[in-house]
Fold:
Amino acid sequence: MPELPEVETLRRELERALVGRVIKSVKIFWSKTVQPFTPTIFAKQLKNVRVTSIERTAKILFLNLSNGKTLAIHLKMTGQLVFQSQGSTLGDFKVEPLIAGGHPEDPKKYTRAVFEFNGRAKLYFNDLRKFGWLRLVSAKDKQIMTEKYGLEPLSPEFTLANFTRALTRYPNRKLKLTLLDQTLIAGLGNIYADESCFAAGLRPRRRVKTLTDKEIKKLHRAIKQILKLALAKGGTSSRNYVRSDGSPGDFFSYLKAYGRSGQPCRRCLTPIAKIKLAGRGAHFCKNCQR
Ligand SMILES: [Zn+2]
Structure:
């Protein structure tokens, strides 16, 4: 699932591509994507509306519109947003399975929605697993959607004091599960929770109450550093994520724990272990992490 660096990468790229553009038409190929609206009503509400700004909270993108509404987008497991300016073709994409094949102008097999803008530019919403969604919301709905999220790790509110308060809210919880709790810290998922634990030398299974002040400080710094680096590399294309031009994010080669089970630790060569934590995989080095 795209996490904070991936969604923020898209936000920045789409901000450059879409702000100021007017939506000319919307085609929906999978009606559940735009629930509770029908595709017809959804498309009608967006016709001739301009994108005024693009924001992000946790893993949700918000396209603010000139009609006072907001188009909220969640990519969930496999969603992609691919922008095609006039003259470029979808055949250029490097990530083949989801978007290759067919005539460049055709919607692809997993395309659920296509937005056409002025100047013949298009935004494709592709989603293999169909968990992603597009919702047209009012300012009030948007507020309700965003207020349940916790600290944004790349914002000024992510101080050591605020982080410590969020982290120790449930003292008996295992560390990784707290890092994944979006109501405490927003935007971290499997990849960056594993990487942050590795960088801080902490096992994902550690109970939060056993962490020392020094360890919390190290973890706080690790989260910020990893997210900043991942953002600078355009995110991690470990599965389905692609940038808005269809190219992969480059952080994959920087991963030290996530997705590396059985491979030698980059620090000490001990094979990276994988365990199950609340039904999800967690990767760590038994030697480097305590
Ligand atoms: Zn190690």
